Amino acid sequence: MDHFDIKAKTWDISKDKQVRAKVFADEIIAFLPSNGQWNALEFGCGTGLLSFALKDFMKNITLVDTSEGMIAVLEEKIKQQRITNFKPLHVDLLADKTEIAAVDIIYTLMTLHHIHDLDRAFSVFHDLLNVDGYLCIADLVEEDGTFHKPELNFDGHHGFNKSQLSDRLRAHGFAVVHYSTPHVITKENGKRYPLFLLIAKKLSEKKSEFI
Measuring CA to CA, which residue among 23, 30, 25 is closest to residue 40? Predict the structure, then answer.
């Protein structure tokens, strides 16, 4: 079992995880026009905290994650709460072929810094989005490498620089239309780590130069 499979059953206990999901959901809702017809996808959904906070704003939500444990917890929550507009999938969206239909919104919370191949991720997101669809990324502002404990042997990104991330998204056919830092995580080491919300809009069906 990987780290996230082990953590899945106790994931929702964290008050901060619940609060930050609500903070980012509120900001996404405030930015996007409300039409009641959005079809969305959450990438790296975990137990679905962000999607549960957005469930009444979206028509349908596909939730994908590579952690079997997280998806199992999510499925139990869906059953208990009788949610009818969620479709959970245990799948590696960046590696596996899927039959997921195009969506209007893709959002991801604290997942992107775990993804090594950002160009692959942005290419997949671009392909999955309808024209004028939105990509909402909530993640760590660039940090000094102390966010993850040394024993975790973390080998992903130490947060993201706004300018560099924006340039990369533009190269994949997106225009950045919103950026804010609405939440801060305070760790046991006493350090504060801001989280950003970046919203980018798919401009056209133009294929990325990285494909």
Answer: 25
Taken in order 179, 125, 114, 21, is the CA torsion positive or negative?
A: positive
Q: DSSP of 114-180, one letter per residue?
A: G-S-HHHHHHHHHHHEEEEEEEEEEEEBP--S-SS-GGG---S-S-B-HHHHHHHHHHTTEEEEEEE
- Residue range 152-190, pLDDT digits in tens: 788 999 999 999 999 999 999 999 999 999 999 999 888
CA distance 76 to 156: 30
**Euclidean distance between CA atoms 87 and 178, whole angstroms:** 28
**Torsions phi, psi of 127, nearest 5?**
-65, -35
Residue 98 backbone phi and psi in degrees, to 5? -130, 165
* Cα Dmax for the chain: 46
β partners of residue 39: 60
Strand 174-186 and strand 192-202: pairing? antiparallel
Indicate the pTM of the whole model: 0.91
Residue 44, CA distances (Å) to 12, 89, 170 in order:
15, 10, 22
Residue bearing tokens 């969620």: 86
Edge-to-edge strand list for the sheet holding 39-43: 86-90, 60-65, 39-43, 103-109, 129-140, 192-202, 174-186
